[in-house]
Structures are given as structure tokens and as C-alpha cells.
Amino acid sequence: MTQLGPLQGVKTACFRLYFLHEGWVVNRTYVARSPELKLLADRMKYREEQRQAAHASKVQLEKTQARLEGGVGTQGLMIRSVRLSDSYRPGVPAVTTTDPKPATVDSVVDELASIVVLCNKADANAQRANVDLQNALQQQQRTLQTMSNVSKMLHDTAMAIIRKIG
Fold this sequence. Notes:
mainly alpha; two-stranded antiparallel sheet; 2 helices; 4 strands; 76% helix
């Protein structure tokens, strides 16, 4: 086993301390931001589920309306009203439906009017959730870029000190 000189030992200690600190800071930044990013991603998924359900219901109602207006195969047609949860809460369904009720031209027209409003609301909510997630990701990217710049300055300073020691 070779013995390190006093200056070589100082250099090695400086490098170890620098890399340990840099790794810890980067790790803490990711750990601190992860729950927030997961929440925003879950919220975006929730809102997208609502948007898809509202649009699927609209398509189904339009098909039912066409069948009723055509008068063919209308016996026993039923419709369900779709309800969207107002706010994101883990474990709470994004979409609920009412019990089926007989489909009449008037009930389908009324339901279509309400589903159009729901589609617009769901589209806006999904868009807002997407923008919130993008903003959080951009903020994390800016934080990591700043940390990278600070890390480079620390590395350059450590190298300058080591060169003066050596």
C-alpha cells in the first residue's frame, strides 16, 4: 500500500468532499420536487380522464339522438347523465353517471346541452392541468440548471485551490 503525501491527501479529501456535497444537493432537489410533480401529473391524468369521458358521452348522446329522430330501433333506449368531480382528490372517481333513464328526444336534447357545457369545462380543466405540470417541469429544469452552474463554479474553485496546493 502506497502512502499519500500530505498534499495528495488534502487533494483527495477536497475532491471527496466536493463530490459528496454535489451529489447530496442534486439528490435533495429531486426528492423535494418529486411529490409535487407526481401530484400535478396525477391531476393532469384525472382531468384528461374527465375530458375523454365527457366527449365519449357526447358522441353516444348524438348517436342516440340520431336514432330517436330516425325512429328506427328506439324501443328501450336509455341514457345516463355524466357528472364530473369538481376538484381533484385522490381516490375519488373523476366521472360518475346517474342511473339510466328512458331516452326521449327532449331528454336527449337537454342532456346534450348539458354535456356540451361539461365538455368545454373538461377541456379547460385538462388544459390548465397540463400547463401547471409544464410550468412545474420548467421550474425544476431552471433549478437544476442553476445548480449545475453553481456546481461548475465550485468545481473550478476547487481545482484552482488544488493547483495552488500542488
